[in-house]
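Standup notes, structure subgroup. Blocker cleared on the zinc ion input:
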Amino acid sequence: MRASINLGRVGGVPVGLNISVLVIVAILVVGLGFGRFPVEYPGLPLAVYLLAAVVTALLFLASLLAHELAHALVARRHGIGVSGITLWLLGGVAQLTGEARTPGADLRIAAVGPATSLAAAALFGLVAWGLGAAGIAPLVTGMFVYLGIVNVLLAVFNLIPAAPLDGGRVLRAVLWARWGDRVRAAITAANAGRTFGYALVVLGFLLVFTGPGFQGLWLALIGWFLVNAASAEEQQARLGAALHGIRVGDVMSRSPVTAAPTETVAGLIDRVVMRERLSTYPLVDEFGGFRGLVTLNRIREVPPEQRPLTLLADIACPPGEVPSARPGDGLLDLMRAMSGFPDGRAVVFDDDGRLVGLVTPSDITRALQTADLRAPYAAPHGADLTVLGPEERRAEAVRRGEGR
Ligand SMILES: [Zn+2]
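Run returned:
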């Protein structure tokens, strides 16, 4: 989910809106401004109802954001990176860059979201009660009553034990703790999610044919989203099992063909592009320092007449925007890190910061194709899945004779 509008950082976490979130705002503004508010608090000008509806919609988005921030901050406390939070059509998404290492962490990261929504409901309820007691305009009190109710519904819906809802992750954590097998727990939670999603789709279409058509379509849409997300989650769990224990050094292309940042595009084409079947050229300066990454796509974008005049450094993806790893890092961690980068390639450095390899899409495809040819791995039982910290990884790499 990409953010179309950046709202800056909250607690160090980048927060953004996807343009589709406007649909939520529109539904709330129309439903409240033309429906609920004029019916319950009659006798006011339309502009007042609309203003109240807009403010309510914005406060609702703020409470959604609080729910996602809670997930993000607890994940970070458990050592999991957070690349950002995006609000969109069906609510919020907190994008984590790793997985919980223990069932307990998994449980806390999931449960804190609904807990925050309940806390928000209590807060809105308290404000409504205070405003009511002080005799403030009933419409304003009504806004906070509505926000309280919506946040309770949000918490309850999210606690349904169906992945990818928070309740599904709670289920996964509980089963993981009981069975000691994260993959099996994740697949069971995903199956529950898919079943629940299909049930919502069926219920939604029943509603369409029996009356409240819009709510029915909305429910069917949410159901369909859950079915897809649950399937993706199951796939991810299976992928994690297949690539379990595979290190970057096992799959990287070693000793890549490099180029100097001062070489021209035409020079590189003459020297290697026409001779070798490579799609990625790291730039390395005369001191061995990594200076960026040039791909075939970037070379093709230079018009032919410009190629003798354009330096590789001018078209390279700068070093700061190329994901990197060490040979001893887990491949899954790197793939997760790479998903946020457009070029789909990573560079591999040894302990002295020298470029020793590349990971390209074809390396990853090959790793996936050969995953089941590898010696059977020990089933990931509980603590066995613990992701090594950087220090442990380095020690492991040295033990395996890599990165030297
Ligand atoms: Zn949540």
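Discussed briefly. The chain is about 55% helix and 10% strand.
Next: hand off to the docking folks.
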